[in-house]
Specification:
Blueprint (H helix, E strand, L loop, with lengths): L2 H6 L22 H9 L6 E8 L1 E2 L11 E2 L4 H20 L5 E9 L7 H14 L1 E12 L6 H9 L4 E7 L3 H7 L5 H13 L4 E8 L6 H13 L4 E6 L21 H17 L3 E3 L3 E3 L4 H7 L4 E3 L2 E3 L5 E5 L4 E3 L3 E5 L3 H11 L3 E6 L2 H16 L1 E3 H7 L4 H14 L5 E4 L2 E4 L7 H6 L17
Parallel strand pairs: 1-4, 1-13, 2-3, 4-5, 5-6, 6-7, 7-8
Antiparallel strand pairs: 8-10, 9-10, 11-12, 14-15, 15-16, 17-19, 18-19
Helix pairs in contact: 3-4, 3-11, 4-5, 8-9
Length: 449
C-alpha cells in the first residue's frame, strides 16, 4: 500500500451511517411528517429507541457529539423532565402492539445521570412502550462518572451491553484531548459491569489523535486486549473544528498526517486480528462468538447512527435534543439546541425540526452503500430484484468505476461488485461513488482514512 494510493483515496467523505447523510436534511420535513410516520407504525413492528443525554461534567476536546459541559445538575434535571414529556408524547402516538427490541442511551454522558434518574428514565420508557423480553439495552459509559450506586442502577435498568470510551491510555495524548482516564479506572468499571451480569462489553479506541504514535497506540491496544472486551471499535479521530469549535484546542501540528493515520489504523487492526478478533466492516472487531461477528458472517450486519449493529428494527426513534430517527419514509431530526428543544416538547411533545423524505433512487443507493459498508460487495441480481425499475443505472455506475479502477480496489465477477483486500480500507471512498448527493456542496466531512 504505497503512500500515493493512501493520499489519493483519503479525500473527505461521509461515514455513511445513513444515506442521504444529515447535511442534506431540510426544514421541509418536520412535525407534521414526523407525527404521521409515528402513527403509521404497525402492530408487532420492531422498534429501536435512542435517547440522547447532551451533558458531560467535562468537555473532551476530540468529541464531535452534540453535548455541553455542566458542573451543576439542575440543567440535567430540567432536561430530563422534557425528555420524559417527549417519551410520553411519542409513546402515545405509536401503536401499543409495536415492540421495542433495542434501547440505546448515548450522549454526552448518560452515566452522568444520578442513579434514581437512570431508573426513572427506564421506567418512563417501559410505561409508554412495549418492550420485548430479549430487548438489548446498551449504554455509553464514562468510567469517571461511575460509582457503586450507578453500577447498581445500570443493572436495575437491565443493561445488556456496556460501551466504554477508551480513546487512548497514553497520558500525553489524554492531556491533549482533555480526557484523563486511567487503565485502572477502566478495568474496574468493566469488572463492576460484568459482576452485575452485563452480557457484552465494547471498548472504543481512536487513532489519529494528537501526539499519538505507533508505539503509544500499540500500548493502548495491548492494554485494551487485556480487558478482553467482546467488541472493539477502532475509529479514526474526525478533526472538524469548523463544526465543533472546542476541537480548535487541539493544535493542527500535533495531529499525525494521513499516511501516518493509515499506518496507525493498519497496525491496530493487525494486532486485533492476531489476538483472535474478527474484523467487522471498516472499523469494528469482535470475538468470533459475539453476535456482531455472527451477523457479519451470515450477511445480517447492519449500519445505523450508532455504527455497525445487529439491530434488525427498520424503525429507529430518536429522543432528546439533536437525535435522529429513521423510518421507512425517511429521516427526522430533533432540535439540537436544548433550550429550544425543551420549549418545543413543552408545547407539543415533539421537537422535530428537519428531516428528509426518501425517493426511490435514495432507497436504491442507500441499499448499495450499506452493502459496501457492511459486506464490501453487492449483487447486481439482488438489487435488480429489489429495485427492478432503477437498478440498471447504478449497475452501470459500478461497471464504469471498475473499468476505470486502475488501483485494484474492486472486482466484478459473477454479477457481484466486490472490494478487494486492497480496496477495503477505502470502503467509504468507494461508497461515495454511488452517493448522488455528495457533489451538492452541503456539509464538510472528515478524511476517509
Amino acid at each position: 500500500m504505497d503512500d500515493a494510493l493512501i493520499l489519493k483515496y483519503a479525500s473527505p467523505v461521509p461515514r455513511y451511517t445513513s444515506y442521504p447523510t444529515a447535511p442534506h436534511f431540510s426544514e421541509t420535513v418536520g412535525q407534521a411528517e414526523y407525527q404521521s410516520w409515528l402513527e403509521a407504525i404497525g402492530p408487532g413492528e420492531a422498534l429501536s429507541l435512542y435517547a440522547h443525554v447532551p451533558y458531560c461534567d467535562r468537555l473532551c476536546w476530540f468529541c464531535a457529539c452534540h453535548t455541553k459541559q455542566t458542573l451543576r445538575y439542575d440543567p440535567v434535571t430540567t432536561y430530563l423532565a422534557g425528555l420524559h414529556r417527549e417519551i410520553a408524547a411519542i409513546g402515545g402516538r405509536v401503536n401499543g402492539e409495536a415492540k421495542v427490541t433495542a434501547l440505546h442511551l448515548g450522549g454526552g454522558s448518560p452515566t452522568l445521570l444520578r442513579p434514581d434518574d437512570l431508573i426513572a428514565l427506564k421506567q418512563a420508557f417501559t410505561s409508554h412502550f412495549r418492550f420485548s423480553s430479549d430487548c438489548e439495552i446498551s449504554v455509553e459509559m464514562d468510567p469517571n462518572d461511575l460509582d457503586e450506586a450507578r453500577h447498581d442502577a445500570l443493572a436495575a435498568i437491565g443493561m445488556t451491553r456496556a460501551s466504554f470510551g477508551v480513546q487512548d491510555f497514553d497520558p500525553v495524548v489524554q492531556k491533549a484531548i482533555n480526557r484523563i482516564q486511567t487503565y485502572e479506572q477502566t478495568r474496574d468499571a468493566i469488572e463492576a459491569s460484568r459482576a452485575r451480569g452485563v452480557r457484552s462489553v465494547n471498548c472504543d479506541v481512536l487513532y489519529g489523535l494528537p501526539y499519538q504514535s505507533l508505539s503509544s497506540l500499540e500500548a493502548t491496544i495491548d492494554a485494551v486486549l487485556s480487558l478482553a472486551p467482546d467488541r472493539i471499535a477502532l475509529f479514526g479521530y474526525a478533526h472538524v473544528p469548523w463544526m465543533k469549535k472546542h476541537q480548535s484546542m487541539i493544535p493542527d501540528e500535533s495531529l499525525p498526517g494521513i499516511v501516518e493515520r493509515f499506518a496507525q489504523m493498519s497496525r491496530a487492526a493487525e494486532m486485533l486480528v492476531a489476538a483472535g478478533y474478527e474484523a467487522i466492516g471498516i472499523d469494528h472487531f469482535a470475538k468470533p462468538g459475539d453476535s456482531l461477528a455472527v451477523a457479519s458472517r451470515e450477511g445480517r450486519l447492519r449500519r445505523n447512527f450508532q455504527g455497525y449493529t445487529t439491530d434488525s428494527a427498520e424503525t429507529l426513534i430518536g429522543l432528546g435534543a439533536s437525535s435522529i430517527g429513521q423510518f421507512r419514509q425517511g429521516y427526522v431530526q430533533n432540535m439540537p439546541a436544548t433550550g429550544e428543544y425543551l420549549r418545543q416538547v413543552e408545547q407539543s411533545g415533539l421537537a422535530a425540526v428537519r428531516g428528509y423524505l426518501l425517493t426511490p433512487d435514495d432507497r436504491l443507493r442507500a441499499r448499495v452503500i450499506a452493502a459496501i459498508m457492511c459486506d464490501f460487495s453487492f449483487s447486481f441480481a439482488q438489487i435488480a430484484g429489489e429495485f427492478p425499475e432503477s437498478a440498471a443505472a447504478v449497475i452501470e455506475e459500478a461497471k464504469l468505476f471498475r473499468a476505470r479502477d486502475t488501483d485494484g480496489l474492486t472486482t466484478i465477477a459473477d454479477g457481484v461488485f466486490r472490494l478487494t483486500g486492497r480496496g477495503r480500507p477505502f470502503a467509504r471512498s468507494v461508497a461515495a461513488v454511488f452517493d448522488a448527493h455528495l457533489q451538492s456542496g452541503r456539509g464538510r466531512h472528515s478524511v476517509a482514512v
